[in-house]
Design goal:
single chain; alpha/beta; Lyase, Ornithine Decarboxylase, Chain A, domain 1; eight-stranded parallel barrel; 12 helices; binds ligand LLP
């Protein structure tokens, strides 16, 4: 079920026509659908029922406070990878005991902030991190609950930049060394072992690599229990992919994923944690943009938009495909024509799509990039001194700005001049 649909020839977000938002907030702007966020979160909890579980939304995919609050109010936990994300989750009202802290390079300061504020567990990724965490916790008179993130050496068969579970990736502890590191963890004064963590990559469109990794985690659970560790939680990471095109892709559904989780680790009596980001937020958002010019090139026609690579970097960074929809529905029978869809940034890499068939468009027309709710706004920058793209949340007929576009004055004020200038 999709909450971005044409009604009376105009693309809507739930009950709100997108031109209404464009007229009031301006473009470019991200627009999110509450109903989609809620629905995707529920798909995961339903898929894991009746196993005891916590769905920890990956804040890195969309960290807006309103989005976090909406999911947190439904009971979601959060997966954070920095003190900044941790503090966002807390500011959104999510209690510490629903927050897991992932990431390869947690600093001592970040550990302190999470220990002080309360944390469900740290997912530790190396021995030096384990020792540092023990020292920090012990110095505060605390004990840090941990899992060790193991690297199962499984090929996630996804884009190389977002594959994390192979032995040459920087993530986790080689699964073959896990027993030794768990033994060390059990001896450290500031550490309490609570489980195992694994995350093999993002945008997986096939369940088999998950199956392989989780089967290895199940075997490890038995081994570690025999070694005397109280393995009571399994954090299975995120990574389930979404369809980026309407037509040909059909990645597995959360329900299939849940069935595979039950089959591989359901018999262990562990509490299951998962860390989905993209599947919850990705198709819950569009990036709305206006055509500035249509430019006749030598061989092709360029659609020059007011959104650029600094607003949505995925096409430039990963060669990612995002469907682009005209906000005004083209009348039946209109012949599409190929456009190179580009932004305003002074780089040829600022290209969203080449030769994309679209109905004829003109300056002032609105277009919407689909599947932009995850890794969209969070990866935006002010490159070329372009104001950070704003965000809007829709709920039924209502909508609200949940991050305003900064003014040029605000942007200028952030810099300061040294005394000698
Ligand atoms: N847990 C951990 C430890 C992660 O590293 C990630 C994503 C997730 C959960 C959430 O994965 P998801 O369910 O969203 O696939 N910027 C890239 C994606 C980077 C993903 C990094 N880690 C993109 O735009 O495709």
């Amino acid at each position: 079920m999709d909450h971005f649909l044409y009604r009376d020839g105009v693309l809507h977000a739930e009950d709100v026509p997108l031109p209404e938002i464009a007229a009031e907030v301006g473009t470019p702007v991200y627009v999110y659908s509450t109903a989609t966020l809620e629905r995707h979160y529920r798909l995961f909890t339903e898929a894991l029922d009746p196993l005891p579980h916590l769905v920890c939304f990956a804040v890195k995919s969309n960290g807006n406070l309103a989005v976090l609050k909406l999911l947190g109010d439904l009971g979601a936990g959060m997966d954070v990878v920095s003190a900044g994300e941790y503090l966002r989750a807390r500011a959104a009202g999510v209690p510490g005991d629903r927050i897991v802290f992932s990431g390869v390079g947690k600093t001592r300061d970040e550990m302190r902030i999470a220990l002080q504020g309360g944390i469900r567990q740290f997912n530790v990724e190396s021995e030096p991190e384990l020792r540092a965490l023990s020292e920090v916790a012990a110095s505060m008179g605390a004990v840090a609950p941990i899992t060790l993130r193991v690297n199962p050496d499984v090929d996630a068969r996804t884009h190389e930049k977002i594959s994390t579970g192979k032995k040459d990736n920087k993530f986790g502890i080689p699964i073959g060394r896990a027993r030794a590191v768990y033994a060390e963890a059990a001896r450290l004064p500031g550490i309490e072992v609570v489980g195992i963590d694994v995350h093999i990559g993002s945008q997986l469109t096939d369940l088999e690599p998950f199956d392989e990794a989780y089967t290895k985690v199940a075997e490890l659970t038995a081994t570690l229990r025999a070694d005397g560790h109280d393995i009571r939680r399994l954090d299975l990471g995120g990574g389930l992919g979404i369809p980026y095109t309407r037509s040909n892709e059909a990645p597995p559904l959360p329900l299939d994923y849940g069935a595979m989780v039950k089959r591989t680790v359901g018999h262990l009596g562990c509490e299951i944690e998962i860390e989905p980001g993209r599947l919850i937020s990705g198709n819950a958002g569009v990036l709305l943009s206006s055509v500035i010019y249509v430019k006749e090139g030598q061989e092709r026609e360029f659609l020059i938009l007011d959104a650029a690579m600094n607003d949505l970097v995925r096409p430039s960074m990963y060669g990612a495909h995002h469907d682009i929809l005209p906000v005004e529905e083209p009348p039946a029978g209109v012949m599409p024509q190929p456009y190179d869809v580009v932004g305003q940034v002074c780089e040829t890499g600022d290209t969203f799509a080449k030769g994309r068939p679209l109905p004829p468009l003109a300056a002032g027309d609105l277009v919407a990039f689909r599947s932009a709710g995850a890794y969209g706004a969070v990866m935006a920058s002010e490159y070329n001194a372009r104001p950070l793209v704003p965000e809007v949340l829709v709920r039924g007929p209502d909508w609200a700005v949940i991050r305003a576009r900064p003014s040029y004055e605000e942007m200028l004020k952030r810099d300061s001049l040294p005394a000698w200038l």
